[in-house]
Amino acid sequence: MPKTKPGQKANTLVLIFCPGFEQQAEFNSKQGLTIDPNQGQGDELDIDEALEEDKKSEQKQDKPENNDSIEEKSDKELEKLEGQIKTYYQRILFFSFLTKDKVASLDDILSVIERDENISLSKNLFLDKAIIQKISKSMDPFKRSRLDYKIQNISMLACDESIEPIERAMTSIKKFNRMSESEVITPSKVCDEMVGLLPEEGLKEIVSNQDKLLDIASKSGEYAVALYKRLTSELGYSHENVKDIIYSIPTSSIAYAFTRRFYEILDLNVENIAAMFNAYDLIKVKNDKDEVDYEKISGILKQNKKFSNITLQDEVKAGDKKVNFAAVIGNPPYQKSIIKEKSNSSLSKQLFPYYTILSMKISSDLSSLIIPARWFTGDAQDKSFLKLREFLKDENTLSDLYYYEDTNSIFHHVEIKGGICHFLSSSNHIGDINFVKVLEGEKISTKRNLFLKGLDIVLTDEIQFSVLNKVRDEEFSSLTEITTGRNAFGITGKESIVKTVSSVDIFENACELRCKHNLVRYITEDKVTKNIDIFNSYKVFISKSAGAPNTDKKVIGEPYIGGLKSACTDSLIPIGKFDNLFEAESLQKYLKTKFSRYMISLVKSSQNTTQIVYRFVPMQDFTEKSDIDWTKSIVEIDEQLFDKYNLSTEEREHIKKSIKNM
């Protein structure tokens, strides 16, 4: 029997593990399936309490007699395993909701899990009968009773026909939060707000013509439920009028199961759910230039046949009859990680720009998506943000755009750097956009051009535009002129490479190498293969990554002086190339001013602080002959810069309030 060391938690959870169990994600991790408990409701899916007593328990457990052995775990490992158990409990509760069989306990689940329809369901949820049997046998009777109670409640909620379908659907859908790393269920209030923006006359015309409404990336049928609610409860249409016009493309097999379950609750036509492909598959359809083939995708989806039978390999003939998707709505996939390593976790391919364009290509009239706002000013590696801005500028059909700087006001416990927005596009729209900026619950609405005069980016308020106009005069030149791109000296920041080419100890003729996390190591001069002139000069080093743009009000990382014969890894970028230390110190002070960091914030839409974010920072003379006295304090230099660019009192106060001291 394993012994508990002093100060270590007893391994009270050992009995429920089987091979493969520890490979699953932890509860509430980005990878896990999570349920958002609704406090105060008898049917809440709260599984935390059932685990709390396990954590407090100091009882010793006998080692299992079979080969499913577990070694003693550290406190950290036990906490991880506890999280994995919670994830498994969630999957059991998901099964309870999704199965058509009424279940009231673990034993009931075991009795139905191998029925035909439940076999694929349990497979999609990664449920294993052997693990459930082990849970059933090993759980404390009190905690087992509580889990059975949750199983019974969620199953009853799904199957209780005494409750009106729309009420049952609305109550059920609020139980679920996240299904996977990229499948975050859109909260009902957000779906309602977006569906509420669809013009009433447009919806009436859609119903009258029996045109179609499409959720382009369904997780649990959340937009289908919101559409059904507005059409029936608000606009007064009968069930028969709308049951065949709501379509959905799920994001995965699990999302298909959830979407189908909500369609069944509302008695919508389940043949209108895509079954042969998912939302991610859509943008894999490419043309001979290896670009997303929007026209081909649109043609495939509009085929006049059962939506559930459509495949992305279908051959569409010219002249074939088509259905009309008059409105496309949804919360599409945002990005896909290119490299899974922690050191390269920021390397992701942006997906949402393609879905945004696709939604407007599919729809004959209305399109409404909720997407990250980093496309406003960002510069994605594949230039997809730039292409999206160009597309929207050319189309000029956005009628409404809601921008949320704080993404937690939309998605709890989900950080989306750069904020989030949802928009309405209408083919009939002419004129300015209704731009709504939401700050701490307050909505600030302005009628404006999406792209303010002369800009190829989207600014979120008029003060930004006013300041930028004053700074970008006829003689404007940008700090990017002296900013070097990534990997300036040919030394990558990967830990294994840094350890190979450098030393932590100084040695004769050693040259300083600035690394991430403010670390300094030492290299020989021959390790520098690029920009030798900058290496031999004074400059400033600054991290190419900083905090979230809307929460880290410092905007950039600490700027460091780079002396003669000093270099940095590609985790930082060098700015400037000076003959003397004074100019480098002047630049360092400039980068610390609130003025320069505010100008950076206009462009910075993610943690990345690469060369492009300095495009609106005006170049200065950093010598002793400058119109700015660089010997003064940072606060005094800020005031000189405010005066130089003739900023108003309101603009000065706005900058001071927006940016933190450094």
Automatic annotation (TrEMBL):
Keyword Nucleotide-binding annotated: no
Sequence ranges of Polar residues compositional bias: 28-41
A Pfam family assignment: Eco57I
Extent of Basic and acidic residues compositional bias: 53-75
Transport listed as a keyword: no
GO molecular function, one term: site-specific DNA-methyltransferase (adenine-specific) activity
Biological process annotations from GO: DNA modification; methylation
Domain Type II methyltransferase M.TaqI-like: 247-411
Upper lineage: Bacteria, Bacillati, Mycoplasmatota, Mycoplasmoidales, Metamycoplasmataceae
Name this protein carries in UniProt: Eco57I restriction-modification methylase domain-containing protein
Species per Swiss-Prot/TrEMBL record: Mesomycoplasma ovipneumoniae
UniProt keyword annotations, A-Z: Methyltransferase, Transferase
Comp. bias (Acidic residues): 43-52
Disordered: region residues: 28-75
SUPFAM superfamilies per the UniProt record, alphabetical: S-adenosyl-L-methionine-dependent methyltransferases (SSF53335)
